[in-house]
């Protein structure tokens, strides 16, 4: 597997940063907490400790790295933290704002025509592109599954595999050897958990799939939300081991929470890998039991049964991922004749892409390219973008020019809605590029909001919601403090019609129209507007989640932006 340019450059930059930091400060790896990571939105030194000699791509880490970003003021944690990464430009090395800017190659109409043609061609000789977030309770085997799948598909070479085996065994963590392909940072490897979103791509016979491996640990739900908001479909991994499935599925487990979150963020197709069947003697009865539990929950959470599918696997042994030919697979073969995991992935249907609307590209990560200036990653939520285009960065007054675009490890001249891209930008000072900012055309700006009306569905929360409640609002990879400033009406869940005006409280399960007002950080902090659009205008730009005290209390859609 080859390093994509962006990953390669980021890795070099991070290595340099790590060396610099190591020489300046005592190492904190192994002790760093989620909040410590929050201070370095781009590649904290520990994020990129890939081994010398590994020639596998490793995963692009995407999304926010920040479980709880307290500080959204001024030089907030969402800003590109050049100093923390050791990438602060020297005084004589100010950003290259005067370098020649590339030119736009095509008129918008011509670009749209090409994008439409490509979308229609999908399914014949062109593979359809889908993005897939891998979700599930902590330790269900998500990273192991992805590592092994990449290997089975020839995307991890033997050298890298042996290096992972050797190093994980040396660290006394040999059972995590497959997961190390995805969990590339020192801290992730030491703790044996995924903390950030790792991005990989793989291709099946008819699909080009962008994989976002999400953390299962509840402390990293914000990162999981960032990953889910960049995905079309989900792969849920559950641990079939007796007691383990139940622990993940119960209240407080992440299986249910992740499913509810992805559904709220617009994901409707889910493939469930019932994993670790080797741990339960490949029992069909256990597989069926797990499947039945989940089917009931899918029904209750608004998933259509035609859009959910199940597959029994052992990630560790590589059984039923791509084939069932190994000796271990013979046990499963006695009762299972259905599709493999890859067969199911190959049938995922990409949702309708909104290429005609103006460009909306929420930034999920910012990092410095070694030779190509500054890079941002994110998923295009509407419209198209091409090399040479000048874009506005919102919030703020700045613009940037697209120098080049990477899509699925290829350099492309344009990309359209639904693609997870890396843009190399020029003609901008990196300080103006923040996680959560949105890139859009100069003449079609995304609205900025401090106050907006929304429709929400209240989750299974212990404390009812009252007017004045403080919450954290999650929109793409950004989270900001907010207040539920008004409870406008209770709504009928099915029809949306008003059932009661000005309710005093919102209890679990209710649907309501509310007013949300953003707050500044801390007492006296000034609220900063965020780019958000009514759901009716752009679905992806109009969805959000509300959390309080580490619990997701509601999902919502923006109805009307108050200017
Ligand atoms: N026996 C067995 N063990 C497995 C299998 N898949 C994963 N494991 C083990 O389960 C443990 C957790 O695996 P990970 O892949 O790190 O789990 P994860 O879901 O990615 O964990 P987080 O990302 O931290 O939530 C490791 O010790 C794996 O070796 C399997 O199919 N069979």
Oligomer, anyone?
A: single chain
Bound small molecules, deduplicated? guanosine-5'-triphosphate
CATH-scheme architecture of the largest domain: 3-Layer(aba) Sandwich
Strand content: 25-35%
Largest sheet: 7 strands, mixed
Broad shape: globular
Keywords: Cytoplasm, GTP-binding, Hydrolase, Nucleotide-binding, Protein biosynthesis
Subcellular location: Cytoplasm
Pfam family, one: GTP_EFTU
GO molecular function: GTP binding; GTPase activity
Structure, explained:
- The protein has 563 residues and is an alpha+beta fold.
- The chain folds into four domains: 27-84, no CATH class; 129-156 and 194-345, P-loop containing nucleotide triphosphate hydrolases (Rossmann fold); 361-441, Beta Barrel (Elongation Factor Tu (Ef-tu), domain 3), CATH 2.40.30; 448-562, Translation factors (Elongation Factor Tu (Ef-tu), domain 3), CATH 2.40.30.
- Helix content is 21%, strand content 28%.
- β6 (269-275), α10 and β7 (308-312) form a beta-alpha-beta unit.
- It starts with a helix and ends with a strand.
- Residues 1-58 and 62-97 have low confidence and may be disordered.
- The structure holds guanosine-5'-triphosphate.
- The site of guanosine-5'-triphosphate has 23 residues, from α4.
């Amino acid at each position: 597997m080859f390093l994509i340019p962006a990953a390669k450059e980021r890795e070099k930059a991070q290595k340099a940063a790590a060396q610099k930091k190591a020489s300046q400060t005592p190492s904190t790896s192994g002790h760093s907490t989620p909040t410590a990571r929050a201070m370095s939105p781009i590649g904290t030194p520990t994020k990129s400790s890939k081994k010398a000699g590994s020639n596998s791509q490793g995963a692009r880490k995407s999304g926010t790295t920040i479980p709880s970003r307290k500080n959204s003021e001024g030089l907030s944690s969402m800003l590109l933290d050049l100093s923390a990464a050791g990438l602060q430009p020297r005084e004589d090395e100010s950003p290259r704002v005067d370098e020649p800017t590339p030119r736009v190659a095509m008129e918008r109409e011509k670009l749209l025509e090409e994008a439409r043609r490509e979308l229609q061609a999908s399914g014949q000789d062109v593979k359809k592109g889908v993005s897939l977030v891998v979700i599930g309770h902590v330790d269900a085997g998500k990273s192991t599954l992805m590592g092994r799948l990449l290997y089975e598909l020839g995307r991890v070479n033997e050298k890298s595999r042996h290096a992972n085996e050797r190093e994980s065994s040396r660290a006394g963590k040999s059972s995590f050897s497959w997961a190390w392909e995805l969990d590339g940072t020192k801290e992730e490897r030491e703790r044996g958990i995924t903390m950030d979103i790792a991005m990989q791509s793989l291709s099946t016979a008819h699909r080009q799939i962008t994989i976002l491996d999400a953390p299962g640990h509840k402390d990293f739900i914000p990162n999981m939300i960032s990953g889910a908001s960049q995905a079309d479909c989900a792969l849920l991994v559950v641990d079939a081991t007796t007691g383990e499935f139940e622990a993940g599925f119960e209240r407080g487990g992440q299986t249910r929470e992740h499913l509810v979150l992805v559904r709220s963020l617009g994901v409707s197709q889910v493939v469930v890998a019932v994993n670790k069947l080797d741990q339960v003697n490949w029992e069909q009865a256990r597989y069926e039991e797990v499947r039945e539990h989940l089917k009931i929950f899918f029904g209750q959470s608004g998933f259509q049964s035609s859009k959910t599918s199940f597959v029994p696997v052992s990630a560790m042994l590589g059984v039923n991922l791509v084939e069932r030919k190994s000796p271990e697979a013979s046990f499963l073969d006695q009762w299972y004749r259905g599709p493999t995991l890859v067969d199911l992935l190959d049938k995922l249907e990409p949702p309708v892409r909104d290429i005609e609307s103006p460009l909306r590209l929420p930034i999920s990560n910012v990092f410095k390219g070694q030779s190509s200036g500054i890079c941002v990653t994110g998923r295009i939520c509407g419209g198209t973008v091409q090399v040479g285009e000048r874009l506005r960065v919102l919030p703020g007054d700045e613009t940037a020019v697209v120098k080049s675009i990477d899509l699925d490890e290829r350099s492309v001249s344009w990309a359209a809605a639904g693609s997870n891209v890396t843009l190399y930008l020029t003609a901008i000072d990196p300080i103006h590029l923040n996680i959560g900012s949105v890139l859009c055309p100069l003449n079609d700006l995304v609205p900025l909001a401090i106050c907006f009306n929304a429709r929400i569905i209240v989750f299974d929360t212990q404390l009812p919601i009252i007017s004045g409640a403080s919450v954290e609002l999650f929109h793409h990879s950004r989270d900001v403090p907010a207040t539920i400033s008004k409870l406008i009406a209770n709504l009928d869940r099915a029809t949306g019609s008003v059932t009661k005006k000005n309710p005093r409280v919102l209890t679990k399960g209710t649907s309501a129209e509310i007013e949300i007002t953003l707050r500044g950080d801390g007492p006296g902090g000034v609220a900063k507007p965020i780019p958000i659009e009514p759901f009716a205008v752009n679905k992806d730009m109009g969805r959000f989640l509300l959390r309080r005290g580490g619990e997701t209390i509601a999902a919502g859609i923006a109805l009307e932006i108050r200017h």
